[in-house]
Amino acid sequence: MVNRTVALWLAVGLVGFAVLPWYGIEYGFWNFEWLFEGYPRDSDSAPAVVQVFLGGKPWLAPLALALLAPLAVLRRRKSDPLFARVLLLAGGGGLAYLLVQAFAIGLGGWQFGFLEALFGPLETRQFGLGYGALLVSAAFLFYFTQGLAARGAVKGDVFVVGSIGAIVALVGVFVFFPVLTILASAVRDGEGAFAPAAFLLRLMDHRIWGVDCLVGAYSCGVAWNSLLLAILTGVSTTVLGLAFALIATRTDFRLKRSLRVLTVLPIITPPFVIGLAVILLFGRAGAVTQFLEVTFDIPASRWIYGLPGIWFAQTLAFAPISFLVMIGVVEGVSPSMEEAALTLRADAWKAFTTVSLPLMRPGIANAFLLGFIESLADFGNPLVLGGRYSVLSTEIFFAIVGSQYDQGRAAMLALILLAFTLGAFYAQRRWVGKKSYTTVTGKGDSGLFAPLPKLVRFGAYGLALPWAGLTAVIYVMIMFGGFVQTWGHDHSFTLRHYIDAFAVTRGDFGLVWSGAAWNSFWTTLTIATIAAPLTAALGLLTAYLLARQRFAGRSSFEFGTMLSFAIPGTVIGISYILAFNVPPIELTGTGIILVICFVFRNMPVGVRAGVAAMSQLDQSLDEASLTLGANTFATVRRVILPLLRPAIVAALVFSFVRAITAISAVIFLVSANYDMATSYIIGRVENGDYGLAIAYSSVLVLVMMAAIGVVQLVVGKRRIGRRSLTERNAAAVVGEAV
Amino acid sequence: MRIRSNAARVVFDRVTKAFGPVVAVNAVSFEIEPGTLVTLLGPSGCGKTTTLRMIAGLEMATGGRILIGDQDVTQLPATDRDVSMVFQSYALFPHMTVGENVAYGLTMSGFDKNEVRERAEEGLRLVGLAGYGKRLPSELSGGQQQRVAVARALVLEPAVMLFDEPLSNLDAKLRRRVREDIRELQQKLGLTSVYVTHDQEEALAVSDRIIVMRNAEIAQQGSPRDLYEAPADNFVADFIGDANLVEAEIDAVEDGEALVRIGAVQRRLPARGLGPGVVKVAIRPEAIRIARNGAAGAFVADVLKATYLGSHMEYTLATPLGEVFVVDPDIDRPAEAGDRVTVDLARRGVTLVRG
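YS: structure for the whole thing
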C-alpha cells in the first residue's frame, strides 16, 4: 500500500525540481512568456535539474537526493519508526539546505566573505527563488510534517500537523523574517557591515529624543511627539467612546440606532480622509475659517497643521472604535449590581461612581490602549495634517523615500515605534487582559438599568452629541467636496473632478478608461479581491488550530500569528522593502507583495473572529463528526465551516475593506505598475488637488458599502432554525474581533 | 433494511492517560463482553469520561493497550474506529436537518445514496421519530433531540456504542423514559455499550455491569446487585445508594463468616477477607427499622429530624453507634422529632466493608 500523501508531495517536489523554472521570472509571477523564450535551456527559466548540469550550479544537486529519499519508505506503514525518521530527515534537511544555499549565494556570488575564502570566488550568481523552488520547499515542508505526524504529533493527524507547519512557515517568512531584517539593518552601517556603534548613535539621536520644546524654541524629538499625540488621542477617544456607550445603552435616546452607524464609518473610511475633511473645514481656505474671517474678522491661520489638527482628526477617526469597545464594557456590568447598590441606600450618583464605574475600569483601560496604539500606528493623518509636527510613522517614510535615504535611520525609527506598540500591547495583555470584571453571567438577569444620574447623562450628551454632529458634517463634506470647483475659492457645482478621475471615452477600439483614477482603482479592487479570501482562509484555519487542537508550542504559535497585528503598517512596509528587495525572495515592485502584505496584516482579525465564533460552537460537534467516521478535513469542511459563516463574512469584509483603505504599509510597496487607490489619493493631496482626492475617496466609501452588501449576500446566513445567531451584522463581529 | 449490531468485545489492558503531570486514568484494566451494557460510574474528575473518550479515540492513551474486537486500536484516531458516540450535549449539527444528521456518518462511510436514505429512515423509525427527517434539530424537544443523536450513532452499526451522560440535559421525568428506551434498544439490537454517568440510580437501572471509578482507578466492578449488596469499601457503599458507616468489631472468623458485634447487636456476616478486630459496617438506611407496638429492639434511639416525603419517611436518629440516616416506609405512624424509639437491624443491607 503506497502512502498517497507522501507520493503526492513527492510528485509536486519533482515537478518543482525538474519541470518548472527554479528562479523567479523577471516579468512577474503570472507571466508565462518564458515558455517561448528558450525554456528549458535558457538559464533564466531553466528548472533546477538543468541548472545543475548546464547552468553551472552543482550546489542544487543535493536537493534531488533529499527529494527522492522518501521513495525508500513509500510502502512502509506509518507506525514504522523508519518511515517517520526518513521523512523528518529528508524534509528537515532538504529545507535547511535549500535555505542555506539560497542565503549563501546571491546576486553577487558568495554572500559571506568566509565562504568566498573557503571555496574561492564564484562565477555564477543566483536570482530570487521561483516556482520550482516554491514547490520543492512545499514538498520538503510537508515531508517534515508527515514525519512529525507519523511520530504521533497532535494525535497523528496529518492534516492538522501539515496546517500548523504551513502556517508556521508562512508567518516565519512574511512576519518574522522582515522584522529581523529591520533589526539587522539598524545595526549595520552604510556599507552593510556590522556596526554596533552606528546602532547606538542612531538610537541616541537628538532628533528622536530631544526635549528642546521644554526649554527652547525648537521642537521636541519625534519619539516624544508620537507619545504625546498617542496619549492625547487615547484619552479623548476613551472619553468620547464612554459617553457614546452610555447614551446607547443606558438612556432612552431616540437616535440610538443611528449612533451604531457611526461605528461602521471608520471601518470603511481611509484614515487620512478624515484629515482631508478637517482641512476643508479648518484649513486656511476652509469653510469654518473663512466664515470666522468674514464674520468676526479672525484672520485665517495655519493652526490646524500640527498637533491640534492631527489630534482632532485622530479623535474623529478612532472614537468610534472606542465606542465599540465601551458598549461591550457598559453592557457587561450587570444591572443588578447597581440595583443592589440602590437598595443599600446609595443614590443614583453614588451607585454609578462607586459600583458601575469601577467595574468598567479594565474596559476603560482597554479602550485607552487601543486609541493609543491606533494613534501611534496612524500614518495618513499625520502625513496630511502634520505640518512641522513630525511623528515616528511619518519620519520613517521620509527617512526612506525622501532625500535623506537612510535605511539605518528608518530601521531605527521603525524599531522604536515597534517597541512602543508592542509595549502597549504587552501592557494591555498583562494588566488588563486577565482582569475581567464582567458581571453578566449566562444566567438570566432580570434587572433593568437604572436611569443615569443627571450629571453623567448631561455630561455624556454634551460631549457626544456635538461630536456626532461634527462627524456627520465631516461625512457630508466628503460627499459634497468632490462637486465644487476649488474648495475655499470657487464653490460652483462641477462634475469636473469625477470626470478627471473616472471618465470613460469611446475610442477607436471600443471603450477607453481614460480617467486618471482607473488604473489604481482596478489594481486596488483586484488586489483586495485576491487578498480577502486568502486572508479569511488563513485566519480561520489558524483560528481552528488555536481553538480546537492541543499541541506543543501552541501559545508561541498564537503569539506569532497575532504579532503582525501589533506591528504598525509603516514598520511592515519598511521591513518588506528591506527583506524582499534582494534574493532569495525578490518581491518588491510586484502585485504579489501587496497581496502578501494585506494577508499577513489582516490575518489576525480573521483569527480573532474565528476563535470567537468557534468558542461558541460546542467541541462535541467536531467530536461527533470524528466518531461518525469523518476525518479532520471533512469535519472542518462539512461541520465547522458552515457554522462559521458570520465569522467568514467578518473576515472577508474586514480584509477586503482594509486592503482598500490601508495606506501606511502600502505607500512603501506600490510601484508604477501596481499603484493603489490610497497612495494615488495621497499623491493628489500633496499636490493640493483636493477636489479629485475627495471625489475618489467618496467613490471608495461607496464601493466598500456595496462590497459589504455583496459579501453578505453571497456567503449568506447560517441556517440553524428559529433561534438564529446571525442577527448580529458583520461590523459587530469585526468590532468584537478588534 | 434492518439495523443490526456488530457487537464486539472491548478490552482495556493497563491503560493510562496522563495530561502532563496529571494522571486522569491510571493503569486501568477491564473487559466488556459483546452485547452487554457497562456503566462507568463515579464522581466528577474520577476519570470515567476520559476512559470513554479513549474508547472513542478522542483521547489517546499514554500507556497500555485498548482492543476492540480483536484489533488493537490504541493508536487509531476516532475517524478510523468502529465506534459511535452519543454526547451529553447531543452534538447535533445545527445547520443540517434531522435526516442529514442521521445520514452524516453513513455518507462519510461511503454508502451509496439509496442505502444512506434507507438506513437513515430505519434509524429514525427505531427511535420513534419516523417522518421527522425534514426538520431542524432546533425544532425538536430535548428528548427528541437526544433520540436523534442515538439514531445517528445507531445507523452505523458500530462495534461499540458510547453514551456520555446522555440524560443529564433532560428533566427528571423524561430522564426515566429515555433511559428505558436506550436500554430496550440496546437489548433488542444486542449492542455493546459503554455508558458514563454520575447518577447511581441511572447506573443501577440500565447496566449489566457497573465499573465504579475513583481517583483515576477502578474502585469496584460487578453487577448492580453485587455493588449494592456487597460494596467493596465505604466509598462504593456511600456512592451507590446511601449508607451509614458505623464502627463494629469482629470477634471471630469461621469458614468465611465473621461474628460481628455492632453495638449491642451480634450478627453473622460474610467476612470478605477481613480478620478479627475493629472494622466498619455499612448499613443501608432501609435496613434500620423502627420498632412498633412496643416490640423489643436492639437499640434505643432519639429522633433528631423527621421528614415526610409522600411515599416514605426519612429520619435522622441519634443512636449509641452515632448519628444514622433512616428510610422508613411506614407513613401512617410517623415518629416525631424528640421521640425516643427502639430500632432493630434488618437481615439484608448490612455489610462489612474495608476502611
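YS: worth flagging: The mean pLDDT of chain B is 89.
IM: good catch. Also Residues 10-229 of chain B form a domain with the Rossmann fold fold (CATH 3.40.50.300).
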